[in-house]
Fold this protein.
Amino acid sequence: VEGEDAEALDALLDPLHPADIADLLEQIDPRDRKALLTLWKGGLDGDILSELDDNLREQIIADLAPADLVAAVRELETDDVVDIVEDLEPVQQRAILAGLSPADRVAVEKALAYPEYSAGRMMQTEVVRMPEDWTVGQAIDFMRASPGQLPDQFYHVILVDPRMRPKGYVQLGRLLSSKREVRLADILEDSFRTFGVEDEQGAVAYAFNQYHLISAPVVDADERLVGVITIDDAMEALDEEHEEDILRLAGVGGESELSDSVRETTRQRFPWLAVNLVTAILASGVISLFEDVIAGLVALAVLMPIVASMGGNAGTQSLTVAVRAIATRDLTGSNVWRVIRREVAVGLVNGLIFALVMGAIGWAWFGAPMLGVVIAAAMVINLVVAGLAGTAIPVILEKLKVDPALASGAFVTTVTDVVGFFAFLGLAALILL
Amino acid sequence: VEGEDAEALDALLDPLHPADIADLLEQIDPRDRKALLTLWKGGLDGDILSELDDNLREQIIADLAPADLVAAVRELETDDVVDIVEDLEPVQQRAILAGLSPADRVAVEKALAYPEYSAGRMMQTEVVRMPEDWTVGQAIDFMRASPGQLPDQFYHVILVDPRMRPKGYVQLGRLLSSKREVRLADILEDSFRTFGVEDEQGAVAYAFNQYHLISAPVVDADERLVGVITIDDAMEALDEEHEEDILRLAGVGGESELSDSVRETTRQRFPWLAVNLVTAILASGVISLFEDVIAGLVALAVLMPIVASMGGNAGTQSLTVAVRAIATRDLTGSNVWRVIRREVAVGLVNGLIFALVMGAIGWAWFGAPMLGVVIAAAMVINLVVAGLAGTAIPVILEKLKVDPALASGAFVTTVTDVVGFFAFLGLAALILL
């Protein structure tokens, strides 16, 4: 592709969707990327910019001429401009803002004043609003008279009272299928929800998914309409929140991107590994209490990781289910005890099954029946503790306002390692020596 | 709440959204649930049924009188009926189908003929379609003339040719802001994508998110329009796919629900624990090769879990990033080598840092400098291998058409356990004895 052939490149990239071009830019080599961008001048528009990963976007914007950048950004809706501008250096921010129309600039500046990941940042300020007493005919005439000023995409007409407070909304489909003299107030949607500008994006995404919303008005502290969030933004937010949860559960910073450098990636991975080192040392401390026991029977050293590993896995299963259920608000005060009881019961049943299997293996492997008994008993204890800790720890962290996805893993595996080694080696000391 | 007071209950539940009532039913005790449903006759409608978890829905439907069930289901759109019917026993299925209007019955039966998790199951058959040569005026007159026959929610009018093949669509907002004499063909949306009935729901959800679609036509094998998928269904599918990925990464069956019984939950968790037992025994086999070495220096038994645990965690980090990147199609043939190089480099850097730290701790703890050297070297080796295995294993599984989210974890931790124990104990045997 990189044969310096600008025309062939144009022909290749032009039919692609901006999102696909952005993906392409993310996936190719940094050197190829630079060559492509130099060759493919002018092709880079605002839509592509808003689809790029944050880090890469910053790099590319730094290489763009300010005039090109402003031209690229100008055609976007305010919520997309906010997306691009929010992560830039102040100098670049000012350059872009200066290039916008005064109305857009004010809207973007306002949005930037809201906290990150809030409804205020997600919304677009282009809304279609009408007085409560209008009829279908008035609504259609109004929209026909102002084609250039309507947003690119909208699905509802929002009715507001004289103080600009939203009172309900009408679906465009209803509007189109109703007679001209019908009053808008008579064809409102049943369910109507507004968000506050400071509402968190996760809560907004949850509500869209839970209540099947398509768009929803956003109001300021005085309950006045300031913007609208559409479902595509909510879907993106849902995707982001999920991604963050998965990565956090695995001990990776939630902001990780495939186009990040080695240095950034190392920095993202380091903290969790450091925490894990501390917990692993703690578990080793437990083992060192039993050095004499191990010296007396080296088979213990061979078998002990099995108990810890099974506990760790069972704990991670319970933990993941609990973290997800907290995120989707399925795990609440009313069922937490039932879920904990269930997880402990599951740990007990699986513990008993694996105790039998592992007891038999331990006996057969080392020819010592009592060794089988020890590992079987330790297995039951550790799987029950895993079910308990895997559910209780995320619930407690949530109560303490710590993100359970981020912190539960370290705690749960510490518990299962410590309990696993202690139960196995402690029982061995009691029974075998 | 359960004071047998039917009126108070009505007053309490009536203002709630069906999704919230479904959540409430899921969270309360089975006994309370039964009491509530007996008391709250008639309140349970189709909207609530379609919001329930699959397992619970089946239980509740089994308790409902067939006539009530049919009444509840009748008012739903076909895609929601399909959702409810697909998991039922054949007897219940037939009862519901018999109660539907003939047109709906045919639509539901057709949808059930498509594979599960396909676009054909997701779509609703209620579509608004028009000939290509109509004008805005004709479109509006048509819709006004058929208010009862339009779907509850729709956002686009789909233009079809005489053979019913979709040719493009018009946003309702565009329709409303255009003059009556404008031809629909002149105000089509730029980007227009159709899905085949057999397309997978994950691919559909991905495309909606990637291309910011709001609705999209579904065509059969002859390219004829058979239905439409709306973004709320795509958002739900995205949510489902994410949930499944998270749970699979943790070794829990993707279908797990908080309302599942102990028995079901045990069955879901068991397979992964069984796999883990096999891999843990494999790792123990490696340790048993070095029993003499451990007998000579018990400190090795104390320190060896640290190396394995750090490798396991680093491997899980790389693995999760790779699995996610494969799912979002960010990791492709064009950048797989670059990502692997990056992960190995990150493993090397973090490995060197933790080698220094752990080497010093090992030396200080046991007063043996060479023990520090051994653990440091094993740490570097295992973290590099973790980066390599964590990325390469999911990529290879994907190539072999095995779901990387499901199977990678077991392979990666086996590799890091085996390599960790082997490197540490092997180096110890070489250097210390």
